[in-house]
């Protein structure tokens, strides 16, 4: 199947270049509209976005393309990615679109598509859309003048999400007495997230809630939690919550400002749900990047860890295949399918807060579920047209590293699905051996980068 434009999470690139231009977006939307048009029940499309300035340009271009294909467009405004999945389904739309490059800087942007069930499109669907797109780039097959769709600005989309998010925890859950630092990364949740926590009774100390189109994820959010950590310590907060630009990821900070990653969050939620009989098949789905310590901890609790390739979409696919209701990634994508069709940082945070409030314990005591096996991750950027992993000396370095870690750890080497990077990750209880192995492999890759 062709994958010329789509990566592991939709289409992504630098704004106003390549695929992230207005003319390309018109053609892309027309192709996607054609793909859904024959099976469409309502001919509705909903479009959400984060706070990047380029998102407004791409939104208008996509709207034009969908209208040209004969579809009606509802523009949701800045909204978290999971809210777009939710509203696609609740508004009976045939298609949902999120304009966001997630945790990337403002100069990048991307497009994620959701089907009528609120789930991201499959690889097969994306490949078929690419085929239609290639045909469109060489001709025009748009709707007749009488079939042009309409565009409507929807003004209550954030309110719908706020009200739904509050229902994902029990009515008895009140966050009164909790002081929470909330970093919204100057992104899509800058309005909704503080409102939800405040309405549930928390004292909210907000950060990253003044987007200007260019400061999304800049020195803030889940990828840059230092400012939030300082604020947690300065204000003596009970917890810090750091979201990314489109709010589908979460990183927590305990009351000392120490980082709590997705693996620790999943360990807490999975064991809690298992004790309550809510964890389907006593199984958590995570990727190959999750720490060995998580797997050992879950096994001790009688919980199975089912691994997938990297990418929250593959976690979700495995959850749907096996009937599992919890999954996620070390990076902070937490998928709770009883409540959402994709990762939702805020909903995961609400689950943690409900446990914290009822435990009478400090976050540092509650959120340290296991001791991670030492893990080292390095990225090597490579040039266009290069294929470093196909080189014999690189293969030899990888084989040597696997032999060195055999029985005491593991090694994972993969190409990024969104950037021209090779990611080299190793785990071992022997830190010195681990560093030598990862450094040697990265050096070999760099020779061909």
From TrEMBL:
Pfam families: PGM_PMM_I (PF02878), PGM_PMM_II (PF02879), PGM_PMM_III (PF02880), PGM_PMM_IV (PF00408). Mg(2+) binds at residues 102, 244, 246, 248. The keyword Cytoplasm does not apply. Residues 379-443 form the Alpha-D-phosphohexomutase C-terminal domain. Coiled coil: none annotated. Its cofactor is Mg(2+). Activated by phosphorylation. One of its GO terms (biological process) is carbohydrate metabolic process. Residues 3-135, 160-257, 261-369 form the Alpha-D-phosphohexomutase alpha/beta/alpha domain. InterPro entries: A-D-PHexomutase_a/b/a-I (IPR005844), A-D-PHexomutase_a/b/a-I/II/III (IPR016055), A-D-PHexomutase_a/b/a-II (IPR005845), A-D-PHexomutase_a/b/a-III (IPR005846), A-D-PHexomutase_C (IPR005843), A-D-PHexomutase_C_sf (IPR036900), A-D-PHexomutase_CS (IPR016066), Alpha-D-phosphohexomutase_SF (IPR005841). One of its GO terms (molecular function) is phosphoglucosamine mutase activity. Binds 1 Mg(2+) ion per subunit. The active site is at residue 102. One of its GO terms (cellular component) is cytosol. It comes from the Bacteria. The modification Phosphoserine is found at residue 102. It catalyses: alpha-D-glucosamine 1-phosphate = D-glucosamine 6-phosphate. Its EC number is 5.4.2.10. PROSITE patterns: PGM_PMM (PS00710). PANTHER family: PHOSPHOGLUCOMUTASE (ALPHA-D-GLUCOSE-1,6-BISPHOSPHATE-DEPENDENT), PHOSPHOHEXOSE MUTASE. Belongs to the phosphohexose mutase family. Catalyzes the conversion of glucosamine-6-phosphate to glucosamine-1-phosphate. NCBIfam families: glmM, PRK10887.1. This is Phosphoglucosamine mutase.
């Amino acid at each position: 199947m062709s994958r010329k434009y789509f990566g592991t999470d939709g289409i992504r690139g630098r704004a106003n270049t390549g695929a992230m231009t207005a003319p390309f977006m018109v053609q892309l939307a027309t192709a996607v509209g054609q793909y859904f048009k024959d099976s469409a029940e309502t001919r509705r499309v909903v479009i959400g976005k984060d706070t990047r300035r380029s998102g407004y340009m791409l939104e208008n271009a996509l709207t034009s393309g969908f209208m040209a294909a004969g579809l009606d467009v509802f523009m949701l405004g800045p909204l978290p990615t999971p809210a777009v999945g939710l509203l696609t389904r609740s508004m009976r739309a045939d298609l949902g679109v999120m304009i966001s490059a997630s945790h990337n800087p403002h100069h990048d942007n991307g497009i994620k598509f959701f089907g009528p069930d609120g789930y991201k499109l499959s690889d097969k669907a994306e490949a078929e859309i690419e085929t239609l797109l290639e045909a469109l780039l060489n001709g025009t097959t748009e709707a007749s003048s009488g079939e042009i769709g309409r565009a409507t600005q929807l003004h209550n989309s954030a309110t719908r999400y706020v009200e739904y998010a509050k229902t994902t925890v029990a009515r008895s859950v009140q966050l009164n007495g909790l002081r929470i630092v909330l970093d919204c990364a100057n992104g899509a949740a800058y309005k909704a997230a503080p409102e939800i926590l405040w309405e549930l009774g928390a004292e909210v100390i907000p950060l990253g809630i003044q987007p200007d189109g260019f400061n999304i994820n800049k020195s803030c959010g889940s990828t840059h939690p230092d400012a939030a950590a300082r604020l947690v310590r300065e204000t003596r907060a009970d917890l810090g919550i750091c979201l990314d630009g489109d709010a589908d990821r979460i990183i927590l900070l305990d009351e000392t400002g120490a980082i709590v990653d997705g693996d620790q969050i999943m360990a807490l939620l999975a064991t809690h749900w298992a004790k309550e009989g809510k964890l389907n098949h006593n199984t958590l789905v995570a990727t190959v990047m999750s720490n060995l310590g998580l797997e050992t901890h879950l096994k001790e609790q009688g919980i199975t860890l089912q691994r997938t390739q990297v990418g929250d979409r593959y976690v979700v696919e495995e959850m749907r295949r096996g009937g599992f209701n919890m999954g996620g990634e070390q990076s902070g994508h937490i998928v709770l399918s009883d409540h959402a069709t994709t990762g939702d940082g805020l909903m995961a945070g609400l689950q943690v807060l409900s446990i914290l409030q009822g435990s009478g314990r400090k976050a540092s005591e509650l959120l340290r579920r296991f001791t991670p096996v030492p893990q080292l991750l390095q990225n090597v950027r490579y040039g266009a047209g290069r294929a470093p992993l196909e080189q014999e000396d690189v293969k030899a370095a990888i084989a040597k590293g696997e032999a060195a870690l055999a029985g005491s750890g593991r090694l994972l080497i993969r190409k990024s699905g969104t950037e021209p990077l090779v990611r080299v990750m190793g785990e071992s209880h022997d830190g010195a051996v681990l560093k030598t192995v990862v450094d040697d492999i990265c050096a070999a890759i760099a020779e061909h980068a």
